[in-house]
Amino acid sequence: MTTNNTNPFDKVSGSAGLVKLKGLLLLLGGIAFIAVILVKLEILGVGILFALIFGAVFLYLLFKNPILGFFMAIGINFIILGLGRYVQGLPLGFAIDGIMVLTFLAIIFSRFRERVDWSPANKDITILAAIWLGYCIFQLANPEARMIEPWIAGRGIGFYFFFFVILTFMLIDSNKKLDAFLYFWGAFSILATLKGIGQMLFGVDTAEQAWLDNGGAETHILFGKLRIFSFFSDAGQFGGNQGYAGVVFIIYSMAKKGFTKIFFLTVGILGLYGMMISGTRGSIAVPFAGFMTFFVLKKNVKVLSVGVIFVALIFIFFKYTTIANGNDQVRRMRGAFDPNNKSLQVRLDNQKILKGYLASRPFGGGIGHAGDKAQRFLPNAFLSNVATDSWYVLIWAELGIVGLTLHLIVLFYVMGKATYKVMFVIRDPITKVKMSALISGTAGVMLASYGNAILGGMPTALLIYASMAIMSNPEIFEDPEYQIQTPLIAAQR
CA separation (Å) from 80 to 93, 94, 110, 142? Predict the structure, then answer.
């Protein structure tokens, strides 16, 4: 029998390691490296040094907790386009791509000693997202596409949907994580509205003014009044996204109590207020369609009746009265109910032009080749000089009638199946409310996207993709108590 006589107090650790030549050389080398950076690059060197430290800490935490990458993508998704007004020349558009890649690597390496179980992502929506991604990749061979650069710029239309759905299935798998997602989203929504209120009360800052002077004023200063855009890409995206938050968080608050309920209600109310001050007429479709969807999901005649009456009163207020017309936001929202609105007529005329052009182009003109955004690549091309406005018109112009049909099939299949589960499968009332909130918000965005390109823009896109994944798999959020009471349904799951 052997005895281990090693004294643990004799081990060399901490500062004692500097007694050894190797430890001392490493310390001196590190100090010298930092000194060179600071001397040569001065203030820039300090920035690089802090970036390296932050990057190292972030990677350590990410590979230890991959869900951090999910939340980081959501956060960047909110600020990336607004940040472009302040930081010029950096490839900010690839930030989300990088975070997604790192998050997938983190999932793999966090379970390096065991095989990663990808079965949570083995769902209908994943298959549909893969088909959609395949069609988007096929667009590289579209004979109408003239350059690959616009396709790269518009890559998110296929790649983000597919990969973010998988990440959501893999990482958001409990009520605690679902609530964390909503808290994170809610915090950014509050900040967005507060930023919008600041623009309304105090005006824009220097960088935002420069953006307005370089073309933004054409669509964001109407009759001398600023359309509020917060830190979003434009007022349309701001209004639509805040209306989306308003619907989701007000309904979600019904599943909460105490301070949490107050927080969610606050986010919802501020969201609807942000929608109003954006001056975006089409965004009002989000709460209209969203709350009507919720009333239907309740399967309660009394609730549905009260809801219909409430929505009808709001419609009458905007359509048939001039009450509060002195308020710029109300007056502009009222224009959404005028069928003779000049903006609507221009959009319909543009759709007629596109209809003739696309009649012989079933696969469209190519991803990234239509609308204002295409002018930086192809300023003189036909599609670059026809405003698309609507998200569905944009899909139609870039991916053709084949792409539009496939896109609508995916959306309505996911919405239809999620609605069926909430109405006839899920028994847990709390889960019903949570899933109804996501379904209703998505329904509102889908309708509003006919008037504005909301659905596929940042930050709405990743929120929609995550919501679609969550509401496609509501069973994992259901209280086990209700599954026990319904053994047949539990067995089927």
Answer: 7, 10, 28, 30
